[in-house]
Amino acid sequence: MNTDMIYQALTFMMLGMSIVFFFLIILVYILKFQAYTINKFVSDDDVATTISSPSSKTIQESKDHNIIAAITGAILHHNNRRI
Question: Is 30 a member of any domain?
Answer without folding.
Answer: yes
